[in-house]
Amino acid sequence: MSLTTAHSVVAPSDNSKRIAGAIIIAYALISIVPLLWIFATSFKTPPDSIAYPPKILFQPSLEGYCNLFTTRTRQTPEYINSLGPATGFCDETVRKRNMVIAGQSNFLPRFINSLIIAFGSTFCAVFLGTLSAYGFSRFKVPLADDLLFFILSTRFMPPIAVAIPIYLMYRELGLSDTALGMILLYTAVNVSLAVWLLKGFIDEIPREYEEAAMIDGYTRLQAFWRTVLPQATTGIAATAIFCLIFAWNEYAFAALLTSGTAQTAPPFIPTIIGEGGQDWPAVAAGTTIFLVPILVFTILLRKQLLRGITFGAVRK
Amino acid sequence: MLNRTAENVARATPEPLARKVRGISDKGLAWLFISPTILLLLAINIFPLFWAIYLSFTNYRANRPNEVVKNLGFANYQRILGDKDVWIAMQTTAHFVFWTILLQTLIGFTLAWLIDRKFRGHAFWTTLILVPMMLSPAVVGNFWRFLYEPQIGLFSYVISFVSGIPPTSIQMLSNVSLAPWSIIIVDTWMWTPYVMLICLAGLRSIPEYIYEAAEVDRASNWRQFWSITLPMALPFIMLAVLFRGIENFKMFDMVNLLTGGGPGSTTEVASITLKRQAFESWRTGYSSAFAIILFVAVFGLANIYVKALNKVKQR
């Protein structure tokens, strides 16, 4: 294609577009294969999941999901026959492998812990972050740059290094392995992101709105509440989603500071084992359930993604 | 305009009371808004940091809280700086950081450069490419252990299918020379989109008229790339490199789940050493000193980062 047909002299030629498109599509498809494999494995039976060569076509089964939510014990066929009819779909599936359901697994409580801790810490981080961001954006704060750098710098500490004193402190305070302790910790980690992102968003709201409101007789606080907050909704929502994703995905603190009652899903999922090693369909099922919310959020966030991952340094 | 201001003044004046109970001054409000965040960070980050500094001068062990704590002075620091294993861990970390950043920058920039051709449907495919970086490195990294299984793992199968090497001999996680690369591959898969996204912003920030001027001057495409595209996108590339550098310097979850530092200590990065010392050997004083040394190193990086960040912002 000659350049004259393009909109501008520098627009890429159709041919180069086609080649670029082909390479990008190939990369995208290859890079999502591991994710598709997680999804596919979650619907395989344990024997199918470890077949050689790896099975691309298989009879879908919900056994992985059954195994994820239950614990099972192996029994003799005679014992199973003496039990009477199966009480549900999972019961039936499990019996085919000479097992009976012994109880619920820990997946559901761990998943609920993840929800409580992620939402709790996100709420706190966004609440504190919005107030601080407004303070830094609108008022002359002494040493503002130093304080902002201090807030950001807490993010650069290696999690294991932070975990050592936190572990001791929480042991003294009785916060070890509690949801409250994890919420406080994730809030502290996320508040740095929240302040930096939200300061960027609030800086973009013209001061004139508040000034007009204050001339109308509003106090500063009312002006903040009625004019700034409604305008910052998009920014606050985007920030909240970033905080939520961090808290949801976090592993290092959770693995070191929680062991039982407050354990979240990321340290739990790798510990799902069946007979003779890792129960991969159950792990894949847990992983799938765990990843779906993030996929939804990523699609919702795609326009703000760049800003979030660079702490507001790059805006479009 | 004037009319509205007058109206506003009129509306405000009949209520002198409102002005009196305006309540808190701006300065008071500023501190009221900022102090909760600062207090939280002091309690959860700074206080523990000072505690760690104190512990780093002692022989305290967290699993024996009732033992008498002895002051050791700088002995812990001396021992760490003279410890061969620590230096090996630092080398492993440097090796990991170097290769992941090199690969991610090369692939990420190339992808961004291709996406910038704006072919039909590029927005959809870009979003698809971005998905891996949003996922939990721990949960997805854990699943890669399955992909890496010799024979039954998809990765090993594909590699043996392409290369003809028998699938049982592709021991990605237990072979001493392959294990570091198994981690580099997962990290690159996960974080190349991150570098790509920042590079894309850099490429899109270059105004078109510069290329038009170059076209008028009959500069070759090659020349345009080296004298316009690359230099102008460079601050963005640097930003991505610094972010990834800091993150990978701290890397813990993926390594812990994929290899746990093994086989032997071939993939034992600094965070893994720290975890083994602090939470397995319970040498709390010693590991606190190591943590402080890592703090200082990361703080150095953080300072460079903030300077680079300001440079990017000035453009």
Description:
The complex is a heterodimer of chains A (316) and B (315). Chain A is mainly α. Chain A has three domains: 40 residues; 60 residues, no CATH class; 173 residues, MetI-like fold. Helices cover 66% and strands 5% of the residues of chain A. Chain A contains 16 helices and four strands. In chain A, the strands form two sheets. A two-stranded antiparallel ribbon of chain A has the order 1-2. Chain A has a two-stranded antiparallel ribbon with strand order 3-4. The longest helix of chain A is centred in the middle third of the chain and has 32 residues. Chain A is globular and about 85 Å long. Chain B is mainly alpha-helical and 315 residues long. Chain B folds into two domains: 38 residues, no CATH class; 240 residues, MetI-like fold (Orthogonal Bundle), CATH 1.10.3720. The relative contact order of chain B is 0.12. Chains A and B meet through helix 1, helix 6, helix 7, helix 8 and helix 9 of A and helix 1, helix 3, helix 5, helix 6 and helix 7 of B.
Oligomer state of the chains in this structure: heterodimer
Pairing-aware structural class of the strands and helices of chain B? Answer: mainly alpha
* Secondary structure: number of strands of chain A: 4
Distance between the termini of chain A: 31 Å
What gyration radius of chain B follows from the Cα positions, in whole Å? 27 Å
At the fold tier of CATH, the topology name of the largest domain in chain A is MetI-like fold
Q: Kindly name the structural category of chain A.
A: mainly alpha
Described by the principal axes of the CA atoms, the overall outline of chain B is globular
With strands numbered from the N-terminus, the spatial order across the biggest sheet of chain A is 1-2
**Helical stretch count of chain B?**
14
Low-confidence stretches of chain B: 13-21
Sheet-strand content of chain B, in percent, reads under 5%
Protein chain pair with the most extensive contact, residues per chain: A-B, 108 and 114 residues
Distance between the termini of chain B: 35 Å
Overall helicity of chain A: 55-70%
Architecture of the largest domain in chain B, CATH level 2? Orthogonal Bundle
The percent of residues in helical segments of chain B reads over 70%
Mind telling me the CATH superfamily name of the largest domain in chain A?
MetI-like
Supply the CATH architecture of the largest domain in chain A: Orthogonal Bundle
Largest β-sheet summary of chain A: 2 strands, antiparallel
Shape of chain A: globular
